[in-house]
């Protein structure tokens, strides 16, 4: 089943843990907060299956539980409109 | 109308019930305490303990240098007597029949005695917190015995001191051999929940010694952030049902100076002399002091990007976020306020 992910930038503290766990999935935006590379944090494009383990590591290692994972695309207006 | 100077200093903390002293410290003489840089005098009457601004309106002398006579606080300088409501009822220099000016009164602070502590609220403003003191059930539970750790002065900002108490990760290092073991430093994943006006952690299993007696085992730690200056901790040995609890209250005296009050409760080894637990707690606080006083910046950074947080720091993250949401600034470094949606 495809996985979608998104970073809740409201709670992200830019600690870099997700980027360390999954460098192919997460990068920093202009403000230093984390965001999903593949779809610019929209949560609309499924991640590669090979990266799913990294994704789970990143989610579990996020100290603020800001990484959301879903089997369906996100409706991400609330999270991205900051 | 009187001006509440501390209102400008930190209206949030001024509206909190803050620990002023142990009740057993206030006997027959007035005692001065320092809260948020305010000098407060505590004194005991037949009707309980009272808290006034430690200042005689006549010439500014400290009332705490005086004495308590017939439930009145007598100024050491000219003998003016203030009753329990703060009203001046005697000015020895004028005839008894002469009216005492209504302005001749002390500033009275809300004050109460609970858990063997005196609690004072500096602000009498409408916004003052209406919340009662949080529960500490062990204090009234006859199956527990509670002792009072000696009051401890630490040259550190109060939020730093509270956060250190909430920090499960440091036990294995700062208190190695006393509470923790660096060979068992890993902290299992846990979460923090908002529940009944306080933050409560999940149960965190930690390989630890509960009280320095050498009974090493897996203890279930639960931390609670009760108020900005008040927290508690419960350690449970599920195999023996032995419980060790603490209520930890911090008095912010100045921006970088605090006083710690700690109640230590246990439901086991009730015959062990209380002094053992008092001494042990002093050892732990002394170990903490060296590290907490070394922290820079001295104020607790509420900007969560200012220091690096890991999943075991979730209690600390919740504490910093709560201080930020409440608007606490005293002893806190507020550089960047990220927009909070929730």
What CATH calls the topology of chain A is Alpha-Beta Plaits
- Mind summarizing the main beta sheet of chain A? 2 strands, antiparallel
Q: And the CATH topology of the largest domain in chain B?
A: Naphthalene 1,2-dioxygenase Alpha Subunit, Chain A, domain 1
Radius of gyration of chain A: 11 Å
Question: How many structural domains in the coordinates of chain A?
Answer: 1
The total beta strand count of chain A reads 4
Taken from the alpha-carbon principal axes, the silhouette of chain A is globular
CATH architecture of chain A: 2-Layer Sandwich
- The residue fraction in helices of chain A comes out at 10-25%
Order of helices and strands of chain A: EHEEHEH
Q: Give the oligomeric state of the chains in this entry, treating copies of one chain as homo and distinct chains as hetero.
A: heterodimer
Instruction: Return the string of H and E elements of chain B.
Output: HHEEEEEEEEEEEEEHHEEEEEEEHEHE
- Residue share in β-strands of chain B: 25-35%
What is the tally of beta strands of chain B? Answer: 22
Strand order of the largest sheet of chain A: 1-4
The CATH C-level class name of chain A: Alpha Beta
Cα end-to-end separation of chain B: 37 Å
Largest sheet of chain B: 9 strands, antiparallel
Distance separating the two termini of chain A: 30 Å
Protein chains sharing the most extensive interface: A-B, 14 and 16 residues
Overview of the molecule:
The complex is a heterodimer of chains A (82) and B (342). Chain A is an alpha+beta fold and 82 residues long. Chain A has one domain: Alpha-Beta Plaits (2-Layer Sandwich). Chain A has 3 helices and 4 strands, in the order E-H-E-E-H-E-H. In chain A, the strands form 2 sheets. Chain A has a two-stranded antiparallel ribbon with strand order 1-4. Chain A is globular, with a radius of gyration of 11 Å. The N and C termini of chain A lie far apart (30 Å). The mean pLDDT of chain A is 90. With 342 residues, chain B is an alpha+beta fold. In chain B, the strands form 5 sheets. In chain B, strands 12, 13, 14, 15, 16, 17, 18, 19 and 20 form a 9-stranded antiparallel sheet that branches. In chain B, strands 2-3-4-9 form a 4-stranded antiparallel sheet, with no helix packed on it. A 4-stranded antiparallel sheet of chain B has the order 5-6-7-8, with no helix packed on it. The model of chain B has no long low-confidence stretch (mean pLDDT 93). Classes of the chains: A alpha+beta (82), B alpha+beta (342). Chain A binds chain B through residues 10, 13-15, 17, 32, 60-65, 78, 82, and chain B through 189, 191, 304-305, 308-311, 313-314, 317, 338-342. Chain B: Residues 17-120 form the Rieske domain. Chain B: GO terms for molecular function: 2 iron, 2 sulfur cluster binding; iron ion binding; monooxygenase activity; oxidoreductase activity, acting on paired donors, with incorporation or reduction of molecular oxygen.
């Amino acid at each position: 089943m495809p996985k979608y992910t998104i970073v809740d930038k409201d709670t992200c503290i830019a600690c870099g843990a997700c980027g360390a766990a999954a460098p192919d999935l997460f990068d920093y935006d202009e403000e230093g907060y984390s965001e999903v590379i593949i779809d610019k944090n929209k949560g609309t494009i499924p991640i590669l299956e090979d990266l799913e383990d990294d994704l789970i590591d990143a989610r579990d290692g996020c100290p603020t539980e800001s990484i959301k994972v879903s089997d369906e695309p996100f409706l991400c207006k609330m999270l991205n409109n900051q | 109308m009187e001006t509440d100077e501390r209102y400008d200093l930190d209206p949030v903390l001024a509206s909190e019930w803050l620990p002023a002293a142990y009740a057993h410290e206030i006997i027959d003489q007035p005692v001065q305490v320092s809260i948020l840089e305010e000098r407060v005098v505590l004194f005991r009457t037949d009707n309980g303990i009272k808290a006034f601004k430690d200042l005689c309106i006549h010439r500014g002398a400290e009332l705490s240098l005086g004495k308590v006579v017939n439930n009145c606080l007598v100024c050491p300088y000219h003998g003016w007597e203030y009753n329990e409501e703060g009203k001046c009822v005697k000015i020895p220099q004028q005839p008894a029949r002469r009216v005492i000016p209504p302005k001749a009164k002390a500033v009275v602070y809300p004050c109460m005695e609970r858990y063997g502590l005196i609690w004072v609220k500096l602000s009498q403003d409408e916004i003052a917190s209406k919340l009662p003191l949080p529960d500490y059930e062990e204090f009234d539970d006859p199956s527990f015995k509670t002792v009072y750790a000696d009051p401890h002065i630490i040259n550190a900002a109060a939020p730093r001191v509270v956060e250190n108490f909430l920090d499960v990760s440091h036990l294995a290092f700062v208190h190695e051999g006393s509470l923790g073991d660096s060979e068992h430093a890993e902290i299992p994943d846990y979460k923090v929940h908002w529940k009944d006006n306080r933050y409560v952690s999940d149960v965190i299993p930690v390989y630890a010694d509960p009280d320095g007696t050498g009974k090493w085992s897996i203890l279930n730690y639960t931390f609670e952030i009760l108020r900005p200056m008040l927290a508690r901790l419960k350690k449970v040995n599920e195999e023996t049902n032995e419980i060790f609890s603490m209520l930890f209250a911090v008095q912010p005296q100045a921006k970088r100076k605090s006083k710690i009050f700690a109640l230590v409760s246990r439901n086991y080894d009730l015959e062990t002399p209380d002094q053992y637990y008092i001494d042990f707690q002093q050892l732990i606080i002394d170990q903490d002091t060296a590290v907490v006083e070394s922290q820079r910046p001295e104020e607790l950074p509420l900007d969560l990007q200012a220091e690096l947080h890991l999943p075991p720091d979730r209690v600390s993250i919740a504490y910093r976020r709560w201080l930020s949401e409440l608007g606490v600034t005293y002893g806190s470094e507020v550089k960047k306020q990220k927009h909070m949606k929730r």
